Every structure is written in C-alpha cells, then in structure tokens.
Amino acid sequence: MPRSVFEFVRTRKQRWNRLDALCERVERSSLSSLPVDDLREMGSLYRQATSDLAYVQTFTPDSELVELLNALVARAHSLVYISSNSSWKMLWRTISQTWPQTFRANVRYFYLSLAIFLAANVMGAAGFLADEGMVNLFLGPGGEQLLESVKAGEMWTDKIFSVTPMSHAALNIMVNNIMVVFLTFTMGIALGLGTVLVLVRNGLMLGAVIAMCVRYGMALSLFDFITAHGVVEISVIIVAGGAGLMLGESLLCPGRLSRRDALRSNGPQAIRLVIMGAFVLVFAGLTEGFISPVHSLPSNLVPTILKICFGIFTGSLFYLYLFKCGRKTDKTTEFHVS
Amino acid sequence: MREYISIDTPENVTFGYEVAGIGSRLMAYIIDLMFRYLPFVALILIITLLGFFIGDLLVYFQGMSTLLIILNILLFFSLHILYYVLFETYMRGQTPGKRFMKIRVVQQNGRPAGLSQIFIRNLFRFIAVFFWPLCYGISIIVMFINKNSQRVGDFAAGTMVVKERSYSEHSIENIGYIQGDKNKMEPKTELGIVLTTKEFEIIQKYLNRRSSMNQQSANELSDMILNNIIKHQPEHVKEAINTLLRSKSINATLHEIAKHYIRDHR
Predict the structure, then answer these.
(1) pLDDT category, A153, cuts 50, 70, 90?
(2) C-alpha separations of B151 from A269, B22, B93 in Å
(3) What span, in angstroms and rounded, lies between the C-alpha atoms of B69 and B80?
C-alpha cells in the first residue's frame, strides 16, 4: 500500500492517463477496432482504477480526487460494459421470435383491447341505427356531410383518390395510421384511460360507418374499400391498444412491484409491440394506397372479390405470425427486461 | 440540491453519477432546438435569396407534390424523433446540446443506454408534439417530483440523465496531488496547522489559477480562503500565521500552509 496520497497519485497517475487515453480512442472509433493487446490492457487498467477508486474513497473521502477517479471509472465502465451492437442476425431474430413471443406473453391485453373495440363498434352501430343524428357525435363535424354523400350513393373514398395521386395518398395514410398507433399506445401513460379513449373513439366511428353503409346499401362498396388493408390495420391498432393498456395496468395495479418497476418491466415489452405494429403498417399503407382504390363496382365484381380475398389472406398471415412464429423457442427464451 | 446515484460495479466498487438538473436539461433542449431548426431556416433563407436572382424556385417544384409530401414527412420524423435517436445512439447518450451542457443519458444501472432504450425515451416526444403545452407541463412536474429528475419517457425506458465530469491529467495536477521537487516542498516554518483534504485542495486550486485571474478578485479570494482556514485553528496557530503574514504575502503564506499538509501526508 502506498504511504501517502501523494505517493499514491504519483505511482498510479500513468495508468489512469493511459486508461483515459484508451477510453478516448474507443469513443472515437469503437471497441472492436482496438487491438487485442490494448483491449486486454484496458480491461486490467479498468479493474485497477476501480480498486484505486475504492482506496481514495476510504482514505481521502470528500476530496476532488474521488470525483476525478469517479469520472474516470464511470467513463471506462460505460465502455467496458457496453451492450452489444445490433446486427442483421439480431434484427431477424427480433422479427421472427422476439416480437411474436412478446405478443403471446401479453396476449390478454390484446383480448381486452379487442373487447373494448368491438363493444365500441356495437355501440356505434346501435347508436346510429337508433338515431341518425348521432353521426356528428361519432364522426365529428364532417359526419353529416358523410351521411349525405352515402345517402346519395357515392363513397367518400372516391374523392380522396380522385384528387391526389396514389403514391401520395398511400404515404399520407401510412403516416396517419402510424401516428394513430403511436398515439393509442403513448396515451396509455394516462393510466390507460387515453388508450381506452382512442380505442372507443375509433370503434364508434367504424361501427357507425358500417351501420350507415349497410342501411343505405353501400355495404359492398365499403367492404370493397376497407377489406384489403383494414383487417391488418385495425388489428395493429388493437395490438397497440393492448400495449397502451399494459402501460395503464402497470400504473394502476402494479401488483407486487412498485409502479415504477412495473412500468419499467412492462414498458419495453409494450414498445416492442408498437414497433412491430409500425413495421406492419408500412406494408398495410402501401396496400391501402395502391390496391384498395382499384375499383370497378358495380359493373365488375371480380376485383372486389380478389381484394376481399387479399384482405383475408394478409389478415390470416398476420395472425399466423403473431400466434405461431418462433413458438419453438417460446419456453426457453427468457424475456430480457432491461 | 445535488442528487447522486450510486452504482455498484461487478468489481464491488461503488461509483456515482450526479443527476443532471432541470436547468441544464432545459438548456440542452434549447440548444438542440436550435440545431434542429437552424438547417431548415438556413435552407429557407437560401431559397428566398436565390429567388431574388433566378425567380421563384418553387415553380420548379410544382407537380412534384408527392416528393414534397415525402420530404415533409421525413422532416417531421427527423426533427422530432430521429435527431435524438441517432445522436443519442452514436454519441453514446448525448446530443449536441447535451454534449455542450456536459450531460448524458445512461441506464439506471449506470450502463450506457442501448438503441431500444433511446428509442423508447424519445418515442414519448410524440405525445409532446401533439399536445405540447400539456405534455411539457406534465413532464416538467414529473421531473420536479422525482429525485432522479426523470421525465415520463425516462421512466418508461429506465434511463436517466446524468452530469458528466471528466478525468484529465491536468485536473489531477490542478488539485495539487502531483508534487515536484521534494526539498522545495519542505515547509520553512512550523505553524502547527492541520488542514483537511478539502482545504488543501482549495488552496492548491487557487494557487494554480491565480495567474489567470485579475488582481482584485485574486486578492479577495485569497483573503476569503485564508480567513476560512484560520477560523477553526487554535489560538497559537492563528498567531503563528499572523506573524508569518507580516513578513510574507498572502499567497506565499497559503503556499507555506499547503506545504504543511504535504509534509504531514507524505
């Protein structure tokens, strides 16, 4: 042991400087670019520095030396214990295993979200059928106008696509959907109430629109437009709703955990589901923009049938992915909650 | 109001981070705001200026509405989310604003924040974009009432923002633990004074910085330091120091006092 703090600093200074320089180099480029010898040296210098820190914490507490060594150790610590970088392989594993596994582990939130959405659908439809004046309540200020155009036998969606080019519309719709999904999720931070609100609102809208189109004989046109993309899109919104409810649950009834810990353990899983949803929506948006507006009703039914088949096909594909993908490793994989 | 977070390393040593305050985080936010918007302001200026010389440039963009929409969307994402995600990922938890304010995002266990945590904490800026007055209000209240100054996104991601102090050889020298010639450091008088480590460090730092200060503030500071040290000393030490002060300057006296500490701790 050194006899004094002065001797201590004198003998250790070179190593600290060396460690600092190595840290500098690693921060500039990366850990993997460091030669093996330097890497080994960095490891041992880091351990040395931690023990030096312990020494000064004991013998010269409340001194600036402690703070400086603390800074050095913190810096090296963050480089030595850096989490592994993502690679293509990890990305693939995330898509093929982690996401669907996370979904299955939290499937009860999905069912709850689905139940809320369906209930809102029924309420929306029933409300409209009981009193047509409620369209404004369900659909906002444009409701009345929409009702008029449906009564007149024209789909409002025709208008969207007659004025804007398809790719443009696809992008707009995609972004809009992704926004809705993120919003559905993030609103869950308000004890889950925000998520319920978004779900109910969208559910009421869909229910009312379906009831409207059925009553005025536009049902085929509506399904012609929405089935191709709607199955996947609405599913994603419900999944995001489930994720939002996860946040809400961890705040409302954290169980044995503290609220903060519950949020910390549920948050990353919930976010995983939302990111998955955003990925899927990019594809759904493309379908909506390019396939859904292709219409030839009422003269030709073939495209409509094809589109409905396409919708059912992509929908089943999505649910197959959610419920079947990566099942083999379901039990062996422990969820890494960071 | 300094809050420390201690972290146990696998080596069984505890080191700490000082939590970044709301002030420095807000300042970093404002700097980032500048960085985020400046390029676009510059772009608009350039287009406007060019417009004086070659006419309205926007004419060339007519009929390219799709392109403009794509640009618009890219702009939105990069301004509000991507900017933070990219910088915090590639600058190890820092954005230009954070680097300027010397603060950094880390996980609550002290390890560097990974891509997923950075993504989560910044995703929460989405709500802020839509309902900003409400959300920034809530965010700041939340930051005030928890001792780690975490905002909502930090809670969800399990991250926190900490102050960064840096080690450097210069600062080690500055606090006086590196001493040159042994004989020179031998005190010439016996004052019987006992210094605390903190007092020694303050004297050393003052003596090292003295040359870069203006005369008046250097004098004020040295008076203050000396008075604070003398205050707690027994009578005979006070007298010894006063005697020394008659023949030497304050700076020389402080130097002499520091030498006592060095000798006692050799």
Answers:
(1) confident
(2) 19, 10, 15
(3) 17
Q: pLDDT digit string (tens) for B35-76?
A: 888 887 888 888 778 877 766 666 666 655 666 666 666 677
The chain B residue lying nearest A70, using CA atoms, is B15
* Chain B residues lying within 8 Å of A167, measured CB to CB: 66
Q: Cβ contacts of residue A138 below 8 Å, gap of 6+?
A: A124, A127, A128, A204, A205, A207, A208
Contact call for residues B17 and B162 (beta carbons, < 8 A) = yes
User: Would you mind telling me the total number of residues written for chain A in this entry?
Assistant: 338
**Residue A305, C-beta contacts closer than 8 angstroms, at least 6 positions apart:** none
Contact B177/A5, CB-based, under 8 Å? Answer: yes
- B66 → closest Cβ in A3, A6, A167: A167
Structure tokens at A69: 């060594």
Q: How far apart are CA A56 and CA B177, in angstroms?
A: 12
CA end-to-end span of chain B? 35
Q: In this complex, do B115 and A53 lie within 8 Å of one another by their Cβ atoms?
A: no
- Measure Cα distances from A295 to A66, A118, A208, A303, B246 in Å: 73, 28, 23, 7, 102
* Banded pLDDT at A331 (limits 50, 70, 90): low
Strands (E), chain B: 4-8, 14-18, 103-107, 159-163
- 3-state secondary structure (DSSP) of residue B234: coil
Rounded to whole angstroms, how far apart are CA atoms A237 and A182?
A: 9
pLDDT in tens, A294-327: 655 566 677 778 888 888 888 999 999 999 888 8
Candidates A230, A221, A338, A246; CA nearest to A284 is: A230
Q: Enter the tokens of residue B225.
A: 């330091």
Q: Please give the Cα distance from B218 to A206 (Å, whole number).
A: 75
Residue A74: which of B83, B153, B18, B44 has the closest Cα? Answer: B18
